[in-house]
Amino acid sequence: MKNPLADFLHQQICAADEGGMGEKMKTLITIITACAAICAVIHTHIHTACADTGLLWLVNKENSLPADFHPENLCEFKGVKLSLPAKEAFIKMLAAMESDGIYGLRLQSAYRSYEYQRVIFDQRVKELMAKGQNREEAVANASHSIQLPGASEHQLGLALDVSIDGKLSQKFATTDAGRWLEENCYKFGFIIRYPQAKTDITHIIYEPWHLRYVGIPHATIIKEESLTLEEYHRYLANIPMYVVWGDGYYFLVRYADILLETVLPETAEHNTEISRATPARNSGFIITQRKMKGTERS
Ligand SMILES: [Zn+2]
User: Fold this and answer.
1) Helix, strand, coil % in the chain, rounded to nearest 5
2) Which of 294, 283, 256, 296 is nearest to 272 (CA)?
């Protein structure tokens, strides 16, 4: 593998030779060269052994997506675009809901590009300014209900807004569909991303209509422990591992600050998924291994 840093350091050694630089300096440069080569090998292993699914990326004002981020696996469903795992889970969830006698759930919105998020944010700011707020107030207030461009997880293709009457309203929580989702959506890998009791953590109003797909094991832990996604990553970072049952399997969930080469053979095995905690390249990793089949109480 081509390593620009190693090439650069090699040139420095040659220059040190020609310039009559001391042996200590040459040794130091050689050590740094070796370290750079090792880092390149580990980096390559991480990329070949595990692809970042992005399923657990925390996206908010502090962890925003670049304007040019587009999810890879977007597909069409009922007139909107969403990522493939979210679509498959939503179809299963809809079928389960209907078999419980609840019909009419509509998918209002899912994937939104950075540019479209800017359009709807600016629209909200204009509405608030028309009501007499100055620009600063309007931007601050708009950001409680609409995320700034880049800070919306709709850009991931993993967030869905649902309704039964075409309106995104907190009254949705008291409908049969809203109550069913609150109780059951975790079984299909979704969480109510902005809960009523956690607005001081999410900085977003209660949105019973906004679901985020994170996968069944994670949605189950988040539900069991009553966490937000913000809290979940901190929670995992403080426990060695979490065993959770869902979808007929046991899952082992762990958090790692970095993926060392020693854990890679284990993570490369089948039934293992890895997601960074945030879009940032220096964020930690959540490793999810699907273990044996089983029942909840066995
Ligand atoms: Zn939403």
Assistant:
1) 45, 20, 35
2) 256
pLDDT of residue 187: 97
In order of 185, 188, 248, 260, the CA distances from 223 in angstroms are: 9, 12, 17, 30
Show the tokens assigned to 104. Answer: 């009419």
Tokens 């930690």 correspond to 284
Annotation marks residue 266 as catalytic? no
For residue 27, CA distances in Å to 15, 19, 23, 106 come to: 13, 15, 6, 66
> What is the 277 CA–ligand 1 centroid distance (Å)?
20
* pLDDT, tens digit, 9 for 90 and up, residues 204-227: 999 999 999 999 999 999 999 999
Distance from the alpha carbon of residue 268 to the mean position of ligand 1, in angstroms: 34
Return the CA Rg of the chain: 23
CATH of 50-112+152-293, one of 3.30.1380.10, 2.30.300.10, 3.40.47.10, 3.40.50.720: 3.30.1380.10
Query: What's the pTM?
Result: 0.80
201 is written with which tokens?
């953590």
